[in-house]
C-alpha cells in the first residue's frame, strides 16, 4: 500500500456533503459494478468495528465493486471527529456525508423496514438489490457479496 | 425517471421483504407495565400514576449523540405535558457493561446537570425494551391510559430536526399528545429517525 500521497492533515480532506437528494443517486448507480453502500458514523461503535471489513473488501475486489461509505456524523464534528478518523485509518473507499435532519422523510426510501439504527448496508447491482440491517464480519460480508456475482 | 426508478426499487423491496410482526408494539397494542429503578433509588411503574391520562415513554441514554441532542426537548415535553396528564418516563436500555457511560451513577450525574424533572429509570435486565420493540435511542412511545391498559398511540421520533430545535417544522410527539388530549385521532402514528442501536 502506498501512503506517500495521502493527505497529511484535516485541511486536505475535502468532504462531499449532501442532503438525501444528493445521496440517493449513490443508491441507484447504473454502472457495471456491484455497489456496497454502508451507512455509518464515527460515534457508532459497531459501525467502526466493521468498517475495516468494507475497506478490505474494496481492496480485494477493486475491479468488481465500489464501496461507498455514507457518514452520518454530525456537522459540528466533521473537523473534530470525522476528518481525523478518515486520516487516522487512511480510509480508501469513497466517503460521502449525509446531512439531512428530516430523517423521517428519507429513512423509508432507503428501506421500508429500516427503523433508523445504524449500521446498515445496501448491496446492489444491475440485477439484484438487498438491504442489511445488521453488522458483518469480513467472512459474512464476502460471502454475501459473492451472491451478487 | 429517477423518481420512477426509486419507486420501483421501493416497491420491489416491499414485495420481497418479509414483514416481521412480532417485533415489538404496533399502534393499538397494550403496553406492558414495568418496575424499574429510578435515579433516586425508588422504583417506577406506570401503575404508580393513578391519575395519568397517558405517558410519554422515551428510551434514551447519556452516550448517544442523538439522545444528547434531544435532552432539553425531552425535559421540555415533561414540563409541558406532565401537568396535563402525560408525564415523561425516560428508560435507559443499554447494557452498562458495554456502555459504562450509561451507568446508574452516570445517569444520576447527567440528570442533575440537566435538571431532569422526569424519572430516568434503568432497564437493568434489558427485559422491557424488547417488549416495546425499541431498537435505538432516542425512541419514543406515547401511551394512552384506558380501562384495558396503556394503549400505544405513537411510536417514533420527537420531531423532524435533531440538529436544531428552532428549525423543527413538525413536533410529532406534541401533535400526538395534543390529539389525545383533545380526543381526536393521532394523525401521524409512526415516524423514523436515526439513532444509536441499543447496546446489548
Task: Give structural attributes.
heterodimer, A: 149 residues, alpha/beta, Glutaredoxin, six-stranded mixed β-sheet, 5 helices, 7 strands, 32% helix, globular, B: 200 residues, alpha+beta, seven-stranded mixed β-sheet, two-stranded antiparallel ribbon, 6 helices, 20% strand
Name given to the CATH homologous superfamily of chain B: Glutaredoxin
Number of self-contained structural domains of chain A: 1
Order of SSEs of chain B: HEEEHHEHEHEEEHE
Question: Which overall shape of chain B is indicated by the principal axes computed on the Cα atoms?
Answer: globular
Strand and helix layout:
The complex is a heterodimer of chains A (149) and B (200).
Chain A: E1 17-18, H1 20-23, E2 34-40, H2 45-60, E3 65-71, H3 78-88, E4 94-98, H4 103-110, E5 117-118, E6 120-124, E7 129-132, H5 138-146
Chain B: H1 2-16, E1 36-38, E2 43-44, E3 54-59, H2 65-69, H3 71-81, E4 88-92, H4 104-114, E5 120-122, H5 129-132, E6 136-137, E7 139-146, E8 149-156, H6 172-181, E9 195-197
Parallel strand pairs in B: 3-4, 4-5
Antiparallel strand pairs in B: 1-2, 1-5, 3-7, 6-9, 7-8
Task: Describe the protein.
The complex is a heterodimer of chains A (149) and B (200). Chain A is α/β, with parallel strands linked by helices. Chain A has a single domain, classed as Glutaredoxin, CATH 3.40.30. Chain A contains 5 helices and 7 strands; from the N terminus they run βαβαβαβαβββα. Chain A is globular. Chain B has 200 residues and is an alpha+beta fold. Helix content of chain B is 28%, strand content 20%. Chain B contains 6 helices and 9 strands, in the order αβββααβαβαβββαβ. Chain B has a 7-stranded mixed sheet, covered by helices on one side. Chain B has a two-stranded antiparallel ribbon with strand order 6-9. Chain A binds chain B through residues 24-25, 27-28, 43-46, 72, 74-75, 101-105, 107-109, 111-118, 129, 131, and chain B through 2, 5-6, 9-10, 12-14, 17, 20, 64-65, 69, 135-136, 156-157, 160-164, 167, 169, 172, 191-199.
Amino acid at each position: 500500500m502506498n501512503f506517500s500521497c495521502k493527505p497529511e492533515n484535516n485541511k486536505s480532506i475535502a468532504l462531499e456533503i449532501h442532503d438525501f437528494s444528493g445521496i440517493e443517486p449513490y443508491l441507484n448507480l447504473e454502472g457495471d459494478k456491484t455497489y456496497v453502500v454502508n451507512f455509518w458514523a464515527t460515534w457508532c461503535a459497531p459501525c467502526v468495528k466493521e468498517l475495516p471489513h468494507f475497506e478490505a473488501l474494496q481492496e480485494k475486489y477493486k475491479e468488481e465493486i465500489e464501496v461507498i461509505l455514507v457518514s452520518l456524523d454530525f456537522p459540528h464534528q466533521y473537523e473534530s471527529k470525522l476528518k481525523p478518523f478518515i486520516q487516522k485509518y487512511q480510509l480508501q473507499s469513497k466517503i460521502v456525508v449525509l446531512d439531512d435532519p428530516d430523517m423521517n422523510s428519507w429513512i423509508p426510501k432507503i428501506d421500508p423496514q429500516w427503523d433508523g439504527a445504524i449500521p446498515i448496508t445496501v448491496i446492489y447491482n444491475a440485477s439484484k438489490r438487498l438491504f442489511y440491517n445488521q453488522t458483518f464480519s469480513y467472512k459474512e460480508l464476502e460471502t454475501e457479496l459473492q451472491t451478487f456475482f | 425517471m429517477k423518481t420512477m426508478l426509486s419507486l420501483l426499487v421501493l416497491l420491489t423491496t416491499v414485495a420481497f421483504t418479509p414483514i416481521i410482526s412480532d417485533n415489538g408494539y404496533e399502534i393499538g397494542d397494550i403496553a406492558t407495565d414495568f418496575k424499574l429503578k429510578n435515579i433516586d433509588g425508588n422504583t417506577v411503574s406506570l401503575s404508580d400514576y393513578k391519575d395519568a391520562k397517558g405517558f410519554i415513554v422515551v428510551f434514551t441514554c447519556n452516550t448517544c449523540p442523538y439522545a444528547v441532542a434531544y435532552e432539553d426537548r425531552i425535559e421540555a415535553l415533561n414540563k409541558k405535558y406532565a401537568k396535563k396528564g402525560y408525564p415523561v418516563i425516560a428508560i435507559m436500555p443499554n447494557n452498562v457493561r458495554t456502555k459504562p457511560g450509561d451507568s446508574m451513577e452516570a445517569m444520576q450525574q447527567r440528570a442533575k446537570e440537566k435538571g431532569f424533572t422526569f424519572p430516568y429509570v434503568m432497564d437493568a435486565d434489558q427485559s422491557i425494551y424488547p417488549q416495546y420493540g425499541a431498537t435505538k435511542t432516542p425512541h419514543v412511545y406515547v401511551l394512552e391510559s384506558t380501562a384495558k391498559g396503556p394503549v400505544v398511540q405513537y411510536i417514533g421520533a420527537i420531531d423532524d430536526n435533531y440538529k436544531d430545535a428552532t428549525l423543527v417544522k413538525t413536533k410529532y410527539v406534541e401533535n400526538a399528545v395534543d390529539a389525545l388530549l383533545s380526543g381526536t385521532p393521532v394523525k401521524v402514528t409512526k415516524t423514523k429517525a436515526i439513532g444509536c442501536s441499543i447496546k446489548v
